[in-house]
Amino acid sequence: MSLVTDAYLFQLWKAAQAASDAEGPGRTFWNQILSKYIFVGKEYVVASEEPPSSANSKRRVDIIVKYFEPPNYSIRILCFVEAKRPNADLSMIDEVEHQAFDACAGYLSTNKLQHIYAMTTIGTRARLWRYRPDNDYLDPLFGSEDLSDRSAYVEAHSSDAQKLRDGFHQMKNIPPTSKVSTSKSAAVIAPSSHAQSSTASSSSAASTQAAASQWVWDNEHKRYRYLNHTTKQWVWQE
User: Fold this and answer.
1) Partners of residue 135 on adjacent β-strands
2) Integer CA distances (angstroms), 56 to 61, 82, 102, 169, 203, in order
């Protein structure tokens, strides 16, 4: 399903298509989609031309999607977006992907998160990525594993754009939560599908269920979590 769902986006899409040698119209198109159609809740912030981290204040990222992490509503970066013009050649595609990688790696070097997302665009085409601290480079969320591959970029105004929708859904459902060490005992009490459906009345099962009462089902992220009162961070079920 296309991401271009109304006349407003269609006009921005046409402007970006007409400006094959300019980066601005495509960046405006994606900013509108991300801020008005995808990350629309008050728990999200879509910013433009900001540094990826305080340690690199002179560097600017085209678009940054942020979110508020409970329970203290800490401001975290969800996704870095770097853009290039529609007629970008191979060297420009390589550059935009390296810019996204550099932003991700720099941010995670000072923020202990499990992962972070990136998005690279060429005009109205885009790829979505995830970066982990132990990765050598970006991992695509879908499609080819090859880097700097123009054919792997999905056109926003096409049926293939469902891949982008699915990627955005993943970003919202599995955000870059803080890295918190989970004790062995906590792992034991994490609720499983068997524990949820079982009605066994044995003392062992009762003990497990009592301990599991610490866990809370997060409907948005579709998994359990509990608050570590020492670190003031959520611990998520693997």
Assistant:
1) none
2) 11, 16, 11, 29, 55
Greater confidence (220 vs 65) lies with 65
Query: What whole-number distance in Å separates Cα of residue 142 and Cα of residue 231?
Result: 34
Q: How far is CA 124 from CA 37, 46, 100, 159, in A?
A: 15, 18, 17, 14
Q: Output the CA–CA distances (angstroms, integers) from residue 26 to 89, 105, 113, 185, in the order listed.
A: 16, 25, 30, 50
**Cβ proximity of 121 and 82 under 8 Å:** yes
Which pLDDT tens digit goes with each residue over 18-39? 999 999 999 999 999 999 999 9
Q: What is the pLDDT of residue 56?
A: 59
pTM for the model: 0.75
Nearest-10 crossing angle of helices 24-33, 7-18: 160
CA 60 to CA 58: how far, in whole Å?
A: 7
Greatest CA separation found in the chain?
70
Cβ atoms within 10 Å of 73's Cβ, excluding its own: 10
Positive or negative, the Cα torsion across 206, 211, 214, 219?
negative
Q: Which string of b and e fits 183-197 if b means at least 16 CB within 10 Å? A: eeebeebbbeeeeee
Which residue stretches of the chain are H helix? 7-18, 24-33, 90-110, 162-173, 184-189, 193-197, 203-212
| Greater pLDDT, 180 or 103 | 103
